[in-house]
Amino acid sequence: MMHKSFSNSHRWLRGISLLAFAALLLVAWLVTGLHADSVPAWMRAAALETLPPLSKDPLAVVLLDEQITTVRDSGEIDTLYRRVSKILRPEAHDALGFGAVVVDFANDTKLSSLKAWTLPASGKEFEVKEKDAIETGMVSEELFSDLRVKVLKIPAAKPGDFVAYEYIQKHRPYIQDDVWDFQDRKSTRLNSS
């Protein structure tokens, strides 16, 4: 015959075990859910913006174009580039910045991260990483140049879809300066002309 206190403690332990198991399942579900969502929050926020009335018939509209430069105590500089666009016409898929990202780098300007995403109007989200990029040298008249480029094709850039990319360059310049072009042609060009 089983003692009554042993039976109660056994039920209590089994109840704790079921509770721990349920908590473990919840944590696993949350972690899996976080990793399954490949599109970053800053891209989702930009995609929720209402488009202003557009003149002409643009290929795409740039919703976010940001550059964040961080200078470390050691003199190293990290620059983060982010861009989100909405594709409006099929020809945008072949345009740089909408259908592909081209990033240059060299010995003194390292590329530490490169990613791109597509957030379709409906359907599956896409993410491509630096390992998916094509790397090549720059064509020049010089005998030797360490200047290289990586080209990352953004998948499924179709009308109505949102595309984004992000990359980080690290460098330690000889002169501590930075360039920022207010409304440069590349970031404000909305049409093919």
Question: What does this protein look like?
Answer:
The longest helix is centred in the first third of the chain and has 33 residues. The N and C termini lie far apart (91 Å). The protein is an alpha+beta fold and 193 residues long. The radius of gyration is 25 Å and the shape is globular. 23% of the residues lie in helices and 33% in strands. The strands form 2 sheets. It has a 5-stranded antiparallel beta sheet with strand order 1-2-8-4-5, with helices on one face. It has a 3-stranded antiparallel beta sheet with strand order 3-7-6, with no helix packed on it.
Question: What are the salient characteristics of this protein?
Answer:
3 helices, alpha+beta, 8 strands, disordered C terminus, 23% helix, 5-stranded antiparallel sheet, 33% strand, 193 residues
Concise synopsis of the structure shown:
This protein is of the alpha+beta class and 193 residues long.
Q: Secondary-structure element order, as H and E?
A: HHEEEEEEEEH
Total DSSP helices: 3
Shape: globular
- The average pLDDT score comes to 75
The structural class is alpha+beta
Radius of gyration, in angstroms, nearest whole number:
25 Å
| Percentage of residues in strands | 25-35%
* Main pleated sheet: 5 strands, antiparallel
Identify the strand order in the major beta sheet: 1-2-8-4-5
The number of strands is 8
The low-pLDDT segments are 18-36, 185-193
Helix content: 10-25%
Distance between the termini: 91 Å
